[in-house]
User: Fold these one by one.
Assistant:
Number 1:
Amino acid sequence: MPTLTVNYLDEIRTVEFTAGKVIGEVILTSGFPLEQPCAGRGTCGKCKVLAEGALSYLDEIERKFLLKAEREANVRLACRARIIGDAQVTLTPVVVYSNKAFTQSNEFKTNDHPLGLAIDLGSTTVAAFIVSLKTGDVYAGSAVLNQQTIFGADVITRLSVAESEPVKLSALAQASIYQAIAALKLSKRVLARVERVHIVGNTAMHHLLMQYPVHTLVMLPFQPHDRSAIYDAGSFFSSLFPLQAKVSLAPLIDGFVGSDTTACLAHFRFDRPRGPVLAIDLGTNGEVMATNGHDILVASTAAGPAFEGVNISCGTRAVDGAIVDAQLDDGHLRLTTIGNRPPVGLTGSGLLSVVNMLKCAGVVDVSGRLIDDNHLIPVEEGEDGIAQVKFSLTVALTQMDIRELQKAKGAIRVATDIVLERLGIKPEDLRCVYLTGAFGSQLNTDAILGVGLIPNVDRARIKLSPNGAGLGAAMFLRDESLRIGEELAARTAHVELDLEPEFNLRFVESMGLE
């Protein structure tokens, strides 16, 4: 049988296969991660790999997504190229960030404090944090792509697969957690001091990880199989965590609102608010949380992965060259990229900032349409006939990208408006608005307000907290904080947006960039 040699970071694996399979299918049998936001349908062009050997000829879809330089460098789409005989592929690392310091000290590597691991199992990204159980300090964090995305960014698709293959979806989640922990680069000596592990995630991620029945989540009224806290799940995970560690999971709230929201509520101290507060977790499955000082309401909304740079033609994670901000300075376009490198793509924050900048320049109207009568920033027609604005030879924003952002924005905004209305809160009365999740710390508050992602509030009241769920999970490593989380979950009411009168109409109205 022919073999495929797969190179990922510093590791090489060889897999035997039946000739004629697509590269992506064979890569997945190697156990290495592969990013496929469209679930291998050939519609996103994101599963690029460096491939050599006995391969099929480029097809029409590959020619559409691959630049001439990429084709000459033997780049192929893993969902399209078929392997005829022996071949070799090199995969791009899917680490979002690795061993990112949260403090200025590396003393946890040398002191004797007992340690804990906090895990945020997100739909797109899985994050891990190393925490002192003595002081509560979060020392460092890392994040990797959730390997479940091989089935696409859509969580409902994963739930459907899990009805027949629950072990496979759980294994992919556990593999992602393992990679996130590995990205922390902890020594065996440090791992030996890990005494507690706490995992949070939305209801779907929680159920997929624990192999719970998911049929109640794929049909109305979308209820969890079990929302209870789990206090000692170590035996379920076998060798995933240090053997001495006690593994726990916080309680879910209701519907798709899971323990990641419980963690955010704890982190933002909804147990003792000083007046009306709003918090929004921006991600593939967005959560809106609000309190009037007494009652707490939450809602889950399917924002889609645009905030994480997925389903965007030139979307990217936070890598060198990723656009994170855009300004119009005296008629000149000024892009801010990570590492001040030439632009390679748009992050979620970059997408929001670019669209807001184009709106301010009159290139995009409030309906989201690109207007081709601006001499400052030209709008041109792409190869597929779709209007676009180019920022470099390889990076552009298309009309379809703007529509993806509008859908995500509309989902968050309508959920926010409904929750605030239910609590009788006027935007001007909000003491604080917390934004957490996919954007990280690069989010531009002018862009947030400019496109109408949130209601109009004083900029000084907007607080960015990139890792609300993860930091809440870090709190739950301590029993007294976990009890606070349990109390918050019990007293929080869930707003079912699907049952809201005229929800669809309000969603469409909320897609406007105002």
Number 2:
Amino acid sequence: IGIMPGQIFRKGNVGVISRSGTLTYEIVSHLTAADIGQSTVIGIGGDPIIGTRFIDALELFEDDPQTEAVVLIGEIGGTDEQDAAKYIKEKFNKPVVGFIAGRTAPREKRMGHAGAIISGSSGTAEEKIKAFNEAGVKVASEPEEVAKLLKEVLK
């Protein structure tokens, strides 16, 4: 239910958590084309104030026997991805693949309809990617690389 085109989804074992609607269906489309189905796809949005955070969704996927791996789709602004990386490193037991949008975004400029912004050194793509790498998350450079990385971690 919602704005996602239903034909791109396929039942499977990968959970997806995303701050970006457009990147959700782009990456899910690549997953489905690579014969990787999804257990649940959760859009948490990119607004400064949200109801569900990455950690909330990760906790649900940790307890879900149908989910064998998770994709995190983040973007510039805020620190939710860094918080998720810490949680993954300390408490999460399933493989995670990540993608961070906004690698070339200029500082202090609002981006997108949700107004993602990098303030000072906080919220940069580089910070988020570093946190993911330190937590053992495989990070895709491009959306189409997510499926390849998932196949590697699901072997």
